[in-house]
Automatic annotation (TrEMBL):
Pathway annotation from the record: Purine metabolism; IMP biosynthesis via de novo pathway; 5-amino-1-(5-phospho-D-ribosyl)imidazole from N(2)-formyl-N(1)-(5-phospho-D-ribosyl)glycinamide: step 2/2
Protein's name according to its UniProt entry: Phosphoribosylformylglycinamidine cyclo-ligase
HAMAP family xrefs: AIRS
Location of the PurM-like N-terminal domain: 61-167
Length: 367
């Protein structure tokens, strides 16, 4: 065969196929640890396969699904060259979105886009996703790593994922279950979680703070605080639903803040009133507020301010709910109540749906 003339190769275009293959080898063990007998065909097929025969035991199974990313928090991980925590953020964002309707997560897929495949970095990302999937009880059945030279810088990447779960139709949680007089129970966040990082990064940049700066109020560096993984509520929430009656609805406090997300799980005609005085937001929130002189209204519609989830429960279930989460290391407290909506409450402030109204009253302790 005559020698071919030298020309442009895929590698010359910036795509390293061999690096991609090495990354797959490095991540195999992490992914396999999330697999139970329901995962069919193992790792590496064109499609992830999950045995759905267990759904035969449901009376009327509803499949629940959610997709999301981590946002600009990945810029902090890239700057610190630490990639093993972002997976928890990704899993928390999607898994807890379906858990609030009462769904049990079944399986998840992920997508990583990068400017250059670094096998060890990709493996660290996937290992973090796999650990978080195991914590949430979901199998990581597939994913994709795509190299995009020229679109992303060599050390830039973004991650996204999707999860599927199942819930009995007559056990679906939501606004239609909420009643006047129900109580709001707050579940503490672990920190910023994965929302508002565009604001946080701008505040830090404008102040000239470096990520390796030690902050006494945090007891660690700024970068370590900003990379604190998202708390994953899935398992303790599902255990609550199996053990305690009277849980009406749940909301996941993500983009839009506490009020906009709480209003999503309230029906038109009712208002949820949260008392700020029932908790003190953590030091990271005070630092962002003070460092950037961020207006309170902007903080509340951007950051979770220490509350990652809210449960709407019957009055006689409050003590059991608080004890349940405390026993599992999740601080929880009564933070408000549901009442009839008044004309002075204004229009629904629900994020993306025609829901109820959520109001925040009073001042935070120590603020």
């Amino acid at each position: 065969m005559q020698d071919e003339p030298a020309g442009t190769t895929y590698a010359a275009a910036g795509v390293d196929v061999e690096a991609g293959d090495r990354a797959v080898e490095l991540m195999k063990a992490s992914v396999a640890r999330t697999h139970g007998p329901e995962v069919v065909g193992g790792f590496g097929g064109f499609a992830g396969l999950f045995d759905a025969s267990a759904l035969r035991g449901y009376r009327r199974p509803l499949l629940a699904t959610s997709t999301d990313g981590v946002g600009t928090k990945v810029a902090i991980a890239q700057a610190l060259d630490r990639h093993d925590t972002i997976g928890a953020d990704l899993v928390g964002m999607v898994v807890d979105d379906i858990v609030v309707c009462g769904a049990t997560p079944l399986f998840m897929t992920d997508y990583i886009a990068c400017g250059r495949v670094v096998p060890e970095r990709t493996a660290a990302l996937v290992a973090g996703i796999a650990r978080a999937c195991a914590e949430a009880g979901a199998a990581l059945v597939g994913g994709e790593t795509a190299e995009h030279p020229g679109l992303l810088g060599p050390d830039e990447y973004d991650v996204a994922g999707a999860v599927t779960g199942v819930v009995e139709a007559d056990e679906l949680l939501g606004a239609e279950r909420v009643r006047e007089g129900d109580v709001l129970v707050a579940l503490a966040s672990s920190g910023l979680h994965s929302n508002g990082y565009s604001l946080v990064r701008r505040v830090v940049s404008d102040a000239g703070w470096s990520l390796d700066r030690h902050v006494d109020d945090f007891g660690r560096t700024l970068g370590e605080e900003l990379l604190e993984p998202t708390r994953i509520y899935a398992r303790p929430v599902l255990e609550l639903l199996a053990a305690v009656e009277g849980v009406r609805a749940l909301t996941h406090v993500t983009g839009g803040g506490l009020a906009a997300n709480l209003a999503r799980c309230l029906p038109a005609g009712l208002t949820g009133v949260v008392q700020r005085g029932t908790w003190t937001p953590g030091a990271v929130f005070a630092t962002v507020r003070d460092l950037g002189r961020v207006p309170s209204a902007d903080l509340e519609r951007t950051l979770n301010l220490g509350v990652g989830m809210v449960a709407v429960v019957a009055p006689d279930a409050v003590d059991a709910v608080v004890r349940h989460f405390a026993a599992r290391g999740v601080p929880a407290w009564e933070c408000g109540q549901v009442r009839e909506r008044r004309e002075s409450d204004g229009r629904s402030n629900a994020k993306g749906v025609d829901g109820g109204v959520a109001l925040l009253e009073g001042r935070h302790q120590g603020w």
